[in-house]
Design a protein that fits this description.
The chain has helices at residues 4-11, 23-41, 83-93, 108-122, 125-130, 136-147, 155-171. It has 181 residues and is an all-alpha fold. The longest helix is centred in the N-terminal third of the chain and has 19 residues, at 23-41. Residues 1-181 form the Glycoside hydrolase family 19 catalytic domain. InterPro entries: Glyco_hydro_19_cat, Lysozyme-like_dom_sf.
């Protein structure tokens, strides 16, 4: 499902993804993105969240959860969740993802695109890396409520850090500081 060609097609919508700042910053951004993808998808095994009982519907932001719609559990490389994220991504793509969130798990380009959109537009991950806030800021943005603030790094957060360091090593770049939550 997750193909290189689909990834490249999706990134064309975001020309500053992986191309902002110095070459080292660009490498760190790609390492950070793929470290988070690796954790979220179990090394690109999962298209949908394992626990699909999580509905992730929050109507306090003024975004409904239409009757008959599937739950807003995680889908895609960064496991897009919550009705408000599906609504915002759908609006950005001129699609109704609020009514049919499963489209993210059915179309490879859309799946990658939703994750790059989240990275660039909705989570501040791009800014965190390109403005030298450190990899830990991406963990907080993506899954901080579950993985951060526990007194020490949770195993998923430590996995992300280890993956990030490994990708940085493969790309020949220092991981920089502020790696943990």
């Amino acid at each position: 499902f997750y193909t290189y060609n689909d990834f490249i097609a999706a990134t064309k919508y975001y020309p500053t993804f992986g191309s902002s700042g110095s070459l080292d910053v660009q490498k760190r951004e790609l390492a950070a993105y793929f470290a988070n993808v690796k954790q979220e998808t179990g090394t690109l095994q999962y298209i949908r969240e394992i626990n699909r009982n999580n509905v992730y519907c929050d109507t306090t932001r003024g975004i409904p959860c239409p009757a008959g719609t599937k739950a807003y559990y995680g889908r895609g490389p960064l496991q897009l969740t919550w009705n408000y994220n599906y609504d915002a991504a759908g609006k950005a793509f001129n699609m109704n993802l609020l009514q049919n969130p499963d489209q993210v798990a059915q179309n490879g380009v859309l799946s990658w695109r939703s994750s790059v959109w989240f990275w660039m537009q909705n989570s501040n991950c791009h800014t965190a890396i390109t403005q030298n806030q450190g990899f830990g800021a991406t963990i907080r943005a993506i899954n901080g409520g579950q993985e951060c603030g526990k007194g020490s790094e949770t195993q998923p957060a430590q996995n992300r850090i280890n993956y990030y360091k490994d990708f940085c090593s493969q790309l020949g770049v220092s991981p920089g500081g502020n790696l943990g939550c």
